[in-house]
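go over this record:
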Amino acid sequence: MFAPSQNIRLDIDALSGILGSISIACWLVVFTPQILENFRRSSADGLSLAFIIVWLSGDVCNVLGAILQVSVVQGVAGG
C-alpha cells in the first residue's frame, strides 16, 4: 500500500500527547479529594496496600513502555 506520510505521524504523536495529558488530568481529579481528606485527617488509613502495589505496578509498566518506545524510535531513526 502507501507508505505513511510524515504528516500522519505528527498527527499520531500529537494525539498521543493529548491523550496522555488527558489521562494525567483525570488521575489528578480522581486523587485530589482523597489526598486532601488524608491530609486533613493526618492519616492514610483509607489506602490499601493492594491498591498501592497495583498502582506502582502500572506506573512501572508505563515507564518501561516509554523507555522501550524511545529505544524503538531511536533504532528506526539511527539505522
Observations:
- The two ends are 23 Å apart (CA to CA).
